[in-house]
Amino acid sequence: MLGLLLNLLKKRKANMMTSDTLKIGSRAFRSRLILGTGKYRDFEEMKASLEASGTEIVTVALRRLDLSNLGQPSLLDFIDPARYTILPNTAGCKTVEEAVQIARLAAAMGLPRWIKLEVIPDARYLLPDPVATLEATRLLIEEGFEVLPYINADPILAQRLQDVGAVTVMPLGSPIGSGQGLLNLPQIQIIIEQARVPVIVDAGIGAPSDAALAMELGAAACLMNTAVAQAGKPPLMALAMKQAVEAGRAAFLAGRIPRSAYAQASSPTTGVVSYESATNR
User: Fold this and answer.
1) 204 is in an annotated binding site
2) Binding residues for 1-deoxy-D-xylulose 5-phosphate, per the UniProt record (predicted)?
3) CATH superfamily, region 30-66+73-253
4) 116 in catalytic set
5) CA-to-CA distance for 45 and 135, rounded, in angstroms?
């Protein structure tokens, strides 16, 4: 009987997760974990981590691709296009012009016509330029791109980007690669509350608990790179992140209990047999 119940619960979970799709612009996905491809010790470790994560979207920094050694294996050789959708990104771009040029290059290479937009002139803290990000988003949308802008956790900027047609907004939890977790929690909550498009928490996630918290808040997905690539065992960490994102999403859909300032007994307080009546029987 217990085995039958467990099987029914597994089927119910599978059906729920299958129907709960992540929609980004014109695309739909089952996985809500997006992985980057930098900082791995080698391509084989990256490939194993992608497989363990269950991700369907893999982001690639075009400026960091070595296109000069055409006879040598490259990053793209280790990403199965039948299994993963490549999300080009403009990492390393400091200006609007550079970001737009990289997006055009991605399209010319035959990659999907969508782009993770990063415009980061700040070399020390790697904080995105809000003004340039908004302008580059507008220009790329005019050219037919679906734009996923990476931003500070700024609710007003998030609204402006949605107004011009961004298909997501991607607020940072904390600085890129820092592993500090969700330091911008109140602002991220506001962005999620006001969003008309999926909100993807990007940057700063260091542990599965960070990813689970982001999903519990109502984020549509998490994007990460360093937390997996620089872990002691990246494939195992990728699996942990997959499970955390799924658990956080399920918790959000289930709806957590309200917080209370006072304790509330788990057992019922009405109809309880008193000690005196029990001993007098």
Assistant:
1) yes
2) 177, 203-204, 225-226
3) Aldolase class I (3.20.20.70)
4) yes
5) 37
What residues does each domain of the chain span?
A: 30-66+73-253
Query: In which residue are the tokens 């109502």 written?
Result: 218
Q: DSSP labels for 103-160? A: HHHHHHTT--SEEEE-----TTT----HHHHHHHHHHHHHTT-EEEEEE-S-HHHHHH
**Is 177 marked as a binding-site residue?**
yes
Tokens encoding 40: 């791995």
Beta strands (DSSP E) in 42-113 are 57-61, 85-89
Centroid of chain to Cα 89: 14
Q: Tell me the pTM.
A: 0.86
Query: Phi and psi dihedrals of 201, rounded to 5?
Result: -80, 125
Contact 169, 149 (CB under 8 A): yes
Q: Give per-residue pLDDT as tens, 176-199.
A: 999 999 999 999 999 999 999 999
pLDDT at 66: 60
Catalytic residue, candidates 39, 116, 233, 242: 116
Instruction: Establish whether 152 is an annotated binding residue.
Output: no
